[in-house]
Specification:
Order of helices and strands: HHH
Number of helices: 3
Shape: rod-shaped
Distance between the termini: 128 Å
Largest sheet: none
Helix content: 55-70%
Strand content: under 5%
Oligomer: single chain
Structural class: mainly alpha
Number of strands: 0
């Protein structure tokens, strides 16, 4: 058997193992980096969520304080404009009510005629 051939096969195997090991090391390093980045993002999001939660709590306390102040001063709280109607639509969707004058009907001119036609003559 050729000695050179015997040495060449283990050398090729060694190089192949080193190549695979190098790939595995770089792959693992990339996974650790991605995990570290993900952990940083999770911590950032948790801090943000905590700040948002604190802000909501402060706003709710302010709403409660103002509601109590209005009740003490005898000012009624009317939320009917913000509530939804029975059909699920908001009252904001309804057309505005006509002005009081238009709801009363056409005006009469002093001569007894309809004021809407008086300007035509």
């Amino acid at each position: 058997m050729n000695v050179f051939l015997c040495l060449q096969v283990p050398a090729q195997r060694y190089q192949e193992l080193c190549r695979r090991f190098g790939f595995a090391r770089s792959f693992i390093a990339r996974l650790y980096f991605e995990r570290h980045e993900r952990d940083l993002e999770i911590r950032r999001l948790r801090r943000h969520q905590s700040r948002q939660s604190s802000a909501v709590t402060r706003l709710q306390l302010e709403v409660d304080r103002l509601r109590t102040r209005l009740e003490v001063e005898g000012i009624p709280l009317d939320f009917s404009e913000d509530e939804e109607d029975d059909d699920g639509s908001s009252s904001d969707d309804a057309p505005p009510s006509p002005p009081p004058q238009a709801a009363a009907g056409p005006r009469r001119s002093p001569a007894g005629g309809d004021a809407s036609h008086a300007s035509m003559f």
